[in-house]
Model the fold of this input.
Amino acid sequence: MKETDRLLLQIIRAGLLETEIPDECRSSLDDDTVKDVCRRAQEHGVLPMAADTILRCRAADNPVIEENLRRTLMSSVRRTETMTAEGKALGRVFEEEGIDHIFLKGCVLRSLYPRDYMRSSVDVDVLVRGEDRMRACAVLEKRMGYRFIQNTAHDSVFFTESGVNIELHFTLLEEGKANGSARVLENVWDHAVRSGGHAMIMNDDMFYLYFIVHMAKHFEESGIGIRFFTDLWLLTNRCEYDRGARERLLTECSLSLFEKRCLDLSEFWFSGAAPGEGTEEFADFVISGGVFGDGEKKIVFGQMKKGGRIKYYLSRLFLPVKNMKAIYPVLQKHAWLLPFMYVRRMGRIFDRDARSRAADDLSRANDPSGEQIDRARELFGYLGIEYGP
Done:
């Protein structure tokens, strides 16, 4: 592990525990090192926590660096306030419209942190019932004035005037992800209680399962970063819960081993626990990427799961019919339009952003070496995550 990453983890641990940064770490934080630590924190989605901890512990001696850290915190505070306000406004409108809804991910997780702005987030994620999807979308566009961006296989994405992404989920997971957990998550509404009117919250075991499933999904796509493990540590060290209830759902989704490996790493990093089997190697993998892994892992994992380069790119171009129906709702009633929707999807190559992403993939698209594929298979096996050929 690089020295910068080791120092970052010590700072994040001090932030979670609200303790002082260790003297050994503090003595290493010269100006250049602080900048490098903050750069890595940004890549892993934990910059607000790192900045808050460095300032609280007065670990930066340079006034210019201190001022930059304060600006970073103020930006995170404003962002959190804006997202909270958008969430409240959205909840009020859904209440008036009689739409059941559950807020997800960062909207809930930030309350576990010592200060809510320490948990970075870019989206307001909210779940509605599948049958309410189109009505909810119309509400967001017509009543809220949100700008529609796109449909995906599990949500519809909007953008607000205040600069916030709204992800309106109508399902929690596409089929074929995270060891087939979608079949269990379909029962989410049976594991939710009303917190008032049409606002609902998941019970602990389902929220925890969804968090682990979401973590597994991102892992198998391109990797996961430090922020997932700070969330996990808080969910297991700052919440009251029934371990048996959590374990039953994890077992049903065949994710008990994945959760154990991730728990081992979070406890190793933030509680000082002894490393478990393979924990330190797993730590090196996580640290080597960013908050959602990196592009190289995406290519290696994708080609491993699909059985080669050609099959990987065909699978990205020709999505399963169920996913296409979610992205293009017109197919729900007019299935005969499917070939035209595939053509429309291929036409996205003329979109600048889509073209840029495709070019980035192609630049990494040399066939992974046999050694890379073997390492990926070993890692998936170690974590208990299923993969293809």
